[in-house]
Here is the input.
Amino acid sequence: MKSDKIFKGLLYAAGLFMALLVFFAFLSLVQKSMSSIKAFGFNFLINPDWNPPLRKFGALAFFVGTLLTSILALLISIPFSIAISLFLGEYYRNNFFGKILDYTTDLLAGIPSVIYGLWGLFFMVPIVRKIELLVGVPPYGVGIFTASLILTIMIIPYTSSIGREVIRLVPKDLKEAAYSLGATQFEVVKKVILPYAKSGIFAGILLSFGRALGETMAVTMVIGNSNYLPSDVFAPANTMASVIANEFAEATDALHLSSLIELALFLFVISFVINYFGNIVIKRFRVNG
Here is the structure.
């Protein structure tokens, strides 16, 4: 009984510590960005101009760049992630080839982002440049589309790994009952496995979206680092994370530094809101019992 109380106390202490950690991180970002907040107010969020020499700072171009790269990467990755999850979780869960692919997927999730960035520069950029020549746009090679492709490859292992584990947790009795009624394997997947595992699959998608929003190094290396609103998905741009990585070490002006920290605060709030509403959706779609 005493050990049970101690264990619960440790759990409460750990939860309180994490809550305080998030609160003080938020508080620190607010404090350090107050100069920018006072100077620009709400206009900071809707102003597309970012010109440090002229002390003009606006987050809109980076907000658009962040959303475009993350959403495009997520849309491209979802079909591949679900297919890999089903392949490893249901069709080839005990197959030798499935185990190799299983290990490879986990390995891809652990590769440092700078390696993805270098691979993107030497492999993806020339391919994207050829695609841009075919569609008649300036052949930069780097830009939002290239960054989205790199992000797609980076987030697929996260979504597919979580989806794989959730699919493997589907009760065997449910599948056997469906088979006994004459259902095919495709019908079992469509009407039993996916409805049961949809909450976990969505959680993996949400985790991947959060990873895509905050990814820094790989995106910085292939997005083109342009501080202007992108005209199309092939144009060079910047994300909130990439502009912080590029300019933080060189920001000698106090207002410039405060504006970069306000970008970090904005990214922090966006991530928090997405995770909060994501948890609501997960609870709504959760299978009871």
About this structure: The radius of gyration is 22 Å.
